[in-house]
UniProtKB/TrEMBL annotation:
Residues that coordinate or bind 5-phospho-alpha-D-ribose 1-diphosphate: 97-98, 101, 103, 123-131
Similarity comment: family membership: Belongs to the purine/pyrimidine phosphoribosyltransferase family. PyrE subfamily.
Cofactor(s), names only, from the UniProt record: Mg(2+)
GO biological process: 'de novo' UMP biosynthetic process; pyrimidine nucleobase biosynthetic process
Protein name as annotated: Orotate phosphoribosyltransferase
Record: residues binding orotate: 127, 155
Species annotation: Actinocatenispora thailandica
Amino acid sequence: MAVSDRENLRQLIKDLAVVHGKVVLSSGREADYYVDLRRITLHHAAAPLVGRVLLDLTADWGYDAVGGLTLGADPVATAVLHAAAARGHGVDAFVVRKQGKAHGLQRRIEGPDVAGRRVLAVEDTSTTGGSVLDAVEALRAEGAEVVGVAVVVDRGAGDAVRAAGLEYRAAYSLADLDLA
């Protein structure tokens, strides 16, 4: 019996990305472990799985561009772009800067224009939803229609994202990773 992309990715996350020990998260909260998803989203075997799993997770949302706040969202968006291309679908990726550039075109959102497009906001992992909601605000300011938010691992952001009026899906919960 073949092991699914979802199960393969779950095991890689557990083996490579879960680091035990006291850490302070970007939200300011303390935790007894850290899920370092860059060890996954930038890994030769795991990154393609990230793209396929998130593409499957959000297949019914109908979007043509994907991205989020740099840095956590960048490799996730690129993985989805490549997975979609492999399936014959044209999905662009974009990067939302934390601040607009002070030079050049002074864009806050890099990549193909998002104005008037249906976009998916992504993040590798989210505890409070703050980063992805910042990205959503920037996307809406540029005229994008945000169809929803998808994360690889949810650390608790779902309620905040849904409270902001957005659909929210996570490929994995903490329980899926034996962390809750």
